[in-house]
Amino acid sequence: MQLPISPNLSSLTRQEALRLWLSRNGLTFSELGRRLGVTPNSVSKLCDQETMPTRRHAQLVDQGIPAELLPRAQDIKPGPKPRDLHEQFMQAFRG
Q: How is the chain split into domains, by residue range?
């Protein structure tokens, strides 16, 4: 049975509030990892980031975790990150 999110959690960071919610609801990163088929460390890293893949976000919400305690769901395109304008200029200047 899930316990509601207490109003006094507003002073906590999202990560602290998530850990408190998990503790109050008897869930651990180990248990979530087992349910999702990943390591506990992977779940911890996912939850500590600013964003997480939409697939993982949906899986955690399906486990009963309130979406507002999770990182924003966002799929980030894999591959090299775009260079900034200064770096492009310097690359062209050198070449």
A: 7-73
